[in-house]
């Protein structure tokens, strides 16, 4: 029997069916015990009871199914999905199953390509055929062969999520107010002293309207203008 890369300390599951002799099952388990050592663990599951097992997700490093001598088990889609569930991410399944060498839509036996597709749909990747062997010389004539296939589980659980850590640096807003030009501030600012300055004349919009004959409609607010005696015409005779 090939060791399938099994090493000390690993957890290995063996899936078998009633077509396998008990002596063959016991011989396989004894060999696995030597490979995994006392630190490892071996679990034996009947394929008909696998769906009712209490195994948690990602429980096993290696799963061997249909590899017990004399096994002729067929793996349903549900069984393959369960195997993928209890297999640890990045680890391998080794499976053996009888397949048809020609397509027969009325047969329950898959072709090798359909079996590989079923393994891929169950969530495994890197699915590939390892070897072919006849069931018996007579069964070769019936277009049946054994195929041994391996597949690896993805490096993460299907449906799992991981929180992304984002580092965001906030820009500090400047606390210093922009400088104001003193000349501009003086130009647009009136103080109490400006209001008493004789050189400043505030224009009353009402008075301006009356002098121009426009009634008492108020004009928009105007800025105070500097005093210029040359521009004054109030109180003078119009003939001058």
Automatic annotation (TrEMBL):
InterPro entries: Anamorsin, Anamorsin_N_metazoan, SAM-dependent_MTases_sf. Residues 198-240 are annotated as: Disordered. One of its GO terms (cellular component) is nucleolus. It holds the Pfam family Anamorsin_N. One of its GO terms (molecular function) is 2 iron, 2 sulfur cluster binding. Residues 207-217 have a biased composition (Basic and acidic residues). The keyword Ion transport does not apply. GO terms for biological process: apoptotic process; iron-sulfur cluster assembly. Residues 9-161 form the Anamorsin N-terminal domain. The keyword Membrane does not apply. Keywords: 2Fe-2S, 4Fe-4S, Apoptosis, Cytoplasm, Iron, Iron-sulfur, Metal-binding, Mitochondrion, Nucleus, Phosphoprotein. Component of the cytosolic iron-sulfur (Fe-S) protein assembly (CIA) machinery required for the maturation of extramitochondrial Fe-S proteins. Part of an electron transfer chain functioning in an early step of cytosolic Fe-S biogenesis, facilitating the de novo assembly of a [4Fe-4S] cluster on the scaffold complex NUBP1-NUBP2. Electrons are transferred to CIAPIN1 from NADPH via the FAD- and FMN-containing protein NDOR1. This is Anamorsin N-terminal domain-containing protein. It comes from Mandrillus leucophaeus.
